[in-house]
Specification:
This protein has 15 helices and 14 strands. The protein is α/β, with parallel strands linked by helices. It is globular, with a radius of gyration of 21 Å. It binds iron/sulfur cluster.
C-alpha cells in the first residue's frame, strides 16, 4: 500500500513523474547558471485527498483535525467540479474522499462519487466514520477493482467505540455500523472494504484530552472485521499534532514504558494475525512497523524539497495544501479551495512556490513521513545522482497486478 516509488513507476503515472523530475532538474541547472527558468509542466497532482466538508457527526477523542472541524467554510460545488475536471485534464488519477469532517454528511457526496467514476473515470477511495454507510452503499456499484472504502472504527467492543467516538444525535452502535458495512460490500464487491484501527494507549493525549485506550481490543476488532465481511483490518499508531501543526508520532506520551506498550501491541498484533485467511488480511501500517521496530526516526530525515507535494495534494474547504500531514497549516498552503479551478493559475503558481519555499527538512523534521523513501528516490534523480530515464525505466505494477494510483 505504501510503496510509493513503485506506484510512480506504473505506466500510467511514469510520464508525468518523468516530466516533473526533468523540470526540477532543469530549474536547478538554470538557477545555477543564471539562465531563464523553465516553466512547470502542464500537469497537476496525480492524486488528491479531497475533504468535502469540515462537518462531522462524531466527536472522536483522538481526532487529529479537531481544531478544523465544523467550521463555517464550504466548497462551492460548481468550482469544485471545475477543479476536478481541470486536474483530470492535467493527469489526476485518483481521489481519496476523506476529512477534515465526515465526507458522507456532505449533501453532494453521491454526486461527487458519480462524477469521479462515471465522468472522469479516476480511482476513488472513501474514508468514513461508518455512520452513514447507506450513502456509501448507494454509490458502491460504481466502485471498481482498485477502489476502496475504509471505515475508521478503532474498537472491538461497542463500549470502547462509544467512549472514543462520541457519536452525536441519535447515536449508532458498532454492531449497526458493521452490519451496514456488509451492504456496502454486497453493493460494490469489487472494491476493497477496510476496517481501520488507530491504536491508542494510556497516557496518549490530544491537547489536554486523555485518550481512551483501545490497545487490548485489536484481536477482538480483527475478529469482528472478519466476521462482517471486511477484506482487511489495518492497524496504525495514534498520531498527535506538533505545535507547528504537523501530524507526528510521539511515543513519549505514555503512562507505561514505551517498550511495554510496544510489547502489548506486538502481542495483540500476533493474535490478530492468526485470524487472517485467503479472504481477510491483517495489515500493519508503515507507521506501526517503524514504531514497533524503533526505526521511526529514520523517516523524519526529509530532503529540503518535498517532491510529493507536487504529485499529491489536499483540497479542503479551508484551502489547498501540500500534504495530509499539514492540513490547515499556513506555510503548507498552496492556495484557496478553488486553486485548481478556472485557468488553474493559482494551483500552478502555488505548487511552484511551495516547492521552493517549504523546507521539508525543517517543517517535517518531526513527521514520521511515509513518503520519505520516495522523496529521497525523486531527489536522487533531480540531483542527477540517478539517471531518471533508467531509474524510471522499468514498467511496474503494484502487488496483485492491478493499478494503484493512490498517493
Ligand atoms: S516531507 Fe512528508 S510530511 Fe513533509 S510535506 Fe512532504 S510528504 Fe508531507
Amino acid at each position: 500500500m505504501h510503496d510509493f516509488a513503485r506506484k510512480l513507476l506504473q505506466p500510467a503515472l511514469r510520464p508525468a513523474v518523468l516530466d516533473y523530475v526533468r523540470w526540477r532538474r532543469a530549474l536547478r541547472g538554470a538557477r545555477a547558471a543564471g539562465a531563464p527558468e523553465p516553466p512547470m509542466p502542464a500537469s497537476g497532482p496525480l492524486s488528491v485527498n479531497l475533504d468535502l466538508t469540515t462537518a462531522c457527526n462524531y466527536a472522536c477523542d483522538h481526532c487529529i483535525d479537531w481544531d478544523a472541524l465544523n467550521l463555517p467554510v464550504r466548497h462551492d460545488d460548481a468550482e469544485l467540479f471545475d477543479s476536478l475536471r481541470n486536474l483530470h485534464a492535467r493527469g489526476l488519477a485518483s481521489v481519496i474522499l476523506i476529512g477534515g469532517g465526515e465526507p458522507t454528511v456532505h449533501p453532494a457526496f453521491g454526486e461527487v462519487v458519480r462524477f469521479l467514476k462515471s465522468e472522469l473515470g479516476v480511482q476513488v477511495a472513501v474514508v468514513s466514520n461508518g455512520s452513514r454507510n447507506e450513502k456509501i452503499a448507494e454509490v458502491a456499484p460504481l466502485l471498481q477493482r482498485g477502489d476502496w472504502v475504509r471505515l475508521s472504527l478503532d474498537s472491538g467492543s461497542d463500549a470502547t467505540f462509544q467512549a472514543m467516538h462520541n457519536p452525536k444525535g441519535r447515536g449508532i452502535s458498532l454492531d449497526e455500523i458493521c452490519t451496514r458495512a456488509q451492504a456496502v460490500k454486497e453493493a460494490g464487491p469489487d472494491a476493497q472494504l477496510g476496517f481501520s484501527f488507530v491504536i491508542t494507549w494510556r497516557g496518549a493525549r490530544r491537547d489536554d484530552v486523555r485518550l481512551v485506550e483501545n490497545l487490548n481490543e485489536m484481536e477482538e476488532a480483527a475478529a469482528r472485521a472478519r466476521d462482517h465481511g471486511f477484506d482487511y483490518i489495518s492497524f496504525k499508531p495514534f498520531l498527535t499534532r506538533a505545535e507547528a501543526g504537523a501530524e507526528v508520532l510521539d511515543p513519549t506520551q505514555s503512562e507505561q514504558r514505551q517498550e511495554d506498550v510496544r510489547s502489548r501491541i506486538r502481542e495483540q498484533l500476533d493474535r490478530a494475525a492468526r485470524l487472517a485467511s485467503s479472504s481477510f488480511r491483517v495489515v500493519e501500517s508503515t507507521n506501526l512497523r517503524v514504531f514497533l521496530d524503533g526505526s521511526w526516526r529514520d523517516y523524519t530525515r526529509q530532503p529540503r524539497e518535498c517532491h510529493m507535494q507536487a504529485l499529491r495534494q489536499v483540497i479542503s474547504p479551508l484551502g489547498t495544501y501540500n500534504c495530509p500531514a499539514h492540513r490547515g497549516v499556513p506555510k503548507a498552503r498552496i492556495g484557496g479551495k478553488a486553486a485548481w479551478s478556472g485557468a488553474a493559475a493559482e494551483g500552478v503558481a502555488g505548487t511552484a512556490r511551495v516547492l521552493d519555499e517549504f523546507d521539508a527538512s525543517r517543517e517535517c523534521a518531526e513527521v514520521t513521513c511515509l513518503y520519505n523513501p520516495v522523496n529521497h528516490f525523486l531527489e536522487g534523480m533531480v540531483t542527477g545522482e540517478m539517471d531518471p530515464e533508467r531509474a524510471l525505466a522499468a514498467p511496474a505494477r503494484v502487488d496483485d497486478g492491478s493499478d494503484d494510483f493512490f498517493l
